[in-house]
Specification:
Shape: elongated
Helix content: 55-70%
Number of strands: 0
Distance between the termini: 21 Å
Order of helices and strands: HHHHH
Structural class: mainly alpha
Oligomer: single chain
């Protein structure tokens, strides 16, 4: 495709596209799931199915994934609190972003 006008700027959605926040969210999920004796590979494979879903859909899928008797709201709260703590330490930029910028 050829543009007949100069590009003066670009707008990017930073979360998950420019910033590697998704990897941090998955690592945090794996950590919290480990406390329930869920293997890393199983937690990672499940997490991938959540990418791009709404909060409502994530909650629905979590309910089916987590062991019986797990307090879903508590799990979700711990996951998000730990994630916020990780993000507060910094979020890595995805590879090759500097080239685009």
């Amino acid at each position: 495709m050829t543009l007949n006008f100069p590009i003066k700027g670009a707008l990017f959605d930073m979360d998950g596209l420019l910033l590697d926040s998704e990897r941090l969210f998955m690592a945090t999920f794996v950590d919290v799931a480990a406390g329930l004796h869920i293997a890393q590979a199983e937690a990672e494979a499940f997490f991938v199915t959540l990418v791009g879903t709404s909060n409502k859909e994530t909650t629905k899928r979590l309910a089916g994934f987590l062991p019986d008797g797990v307090d879903l709201a508590r799990f979700d709260q711990e996951w998000r609190e730990r994630y916020r703590a990780r993000v507060a330490k910094g979020v890595p930029v995805k590879a090759h972003v500097e080239v685009v910028l």
